[in-house]
């Protein structure tokens, strides 16, 4: 079985650029305040969601392994 991820968006950082929605349309939604939310915070490991996190201009998207809480993105130093 593949990894399961917990995806979070830090709304104090999100600037509503919508890049994550374009990169991973199934992974993120913008609300009426143009704040991004994960479509489903608990998701199977997914390259598009990882790409969205990597490409967010303000690094507002965090991904951890569900269960252990180990950082997937941003990676721990
Ligand atoms: S890419 Fe980052 S800043 Fe842009 S909407 Fe998504 S979470 Fe917000």
UniProtKB/TrEMBL annotation:
SUPFAM superfamilies for the chain: 4Fe-4S ferredoxins
Cofactor requirements of the protein: [3Fe-4S] cluster
Coiled coil: none
One of the Pfam families matching this protein, by short name: Fer4_13
Gene Ontology terms, MF aspect: 3 iron, 4 sulfur cluster binding; electron transfer activity; iron ion binding
InterPro entries, per the entry: 3Fe4S_ferredoxin, Fe-S_cluster_ET
Keywords associated with the record: 3Fe-4S, Electron transport, Iron, Iron-sulfur, Metal-binding, Transport
Biological role: Ferredoxins are iron-sulfur proteins that transfer electrons in a wide variety of metabolic reactions.
Protein name (Swiss-Prot/TrEMBL): Ferredoxin
């Amino acid at each position: 079985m593949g990894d399961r991820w917990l995806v979070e968006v830090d709304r104090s950082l999100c600037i509503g650029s919508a890049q994550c929605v374009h990169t991973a349309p199934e992974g993120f939604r913008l609300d009426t305040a143009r704040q991004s939310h994960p479509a489903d915070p608990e998701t199977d490991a997914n390259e598009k969601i990882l790409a969205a996190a990597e490409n967010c201009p303000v690094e507002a998207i965090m991904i951890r392994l569900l269960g252990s809480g180990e950082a997937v993105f941003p990676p721990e130093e």
